[in-house]
Amino acid sequence: MPKFAVILEGRNFPIVTDQGVQLLGFYATRKVKAENEQEAALTAMEMVRSDPELLSVVDRDKTTQPKLFVKSTETIGWFEDMKASGYTFFPMNS
Q1: What pTM does this model have?
Q2: Coil, strand, or helix at residue 92?
Q3: d(CA 86, CA 42)
Q4: Which contacts (CB < 8 Å, 24+ apart) does range 44-50 have?
Q5: Which residues contact 79 (CB under 8 A, 6 or more apart)?
Q6: Rounded distance, CA 18 to CA 85, Å?
Q7: Ranges of each domain in the chain
Q8: Is 20 helix (H, G, I), strand (E, B) or coil?
Q9: Are 21 and 59 in contact (CB under 8 A)?
Q10: What is the rounded distance in angstroms from the CA atom of residue 37 to the CA atom of residue 42?
Q11: Helix or strand or coil: residue 13?
């Protein structure tokens, strides 16, 4: 089965920080096995949407509507592990 690296961008996520709740965006890369690019993108998006690490810091009381986009999907030849982890956050007001 082909392997893909999918880069995702999240926008308008209300994240609980040391300074209170802030609207943040993020980038995340997920490595997945899938039959095609579309399946890879859907799998990667579901991985992020259901990630307990991310869900634990999202403020569910906010009325914002977070968005998740696929920025790119690349076929890769191999990867060392399938662990999905990590986010690079940025402020939405910049």
Answers
A1: 0.88
A2: coil
A3: 18
A4: 44/4, 44/6, 44/8, 44/70, 44/84, 45/8, 45/70, 47/84, 48/8, 48/10, 48/84
A5: 3, 5, 31
A6: 21
A7: 3-91
A8: strand
A9: yes
A10: 9
A11: strand
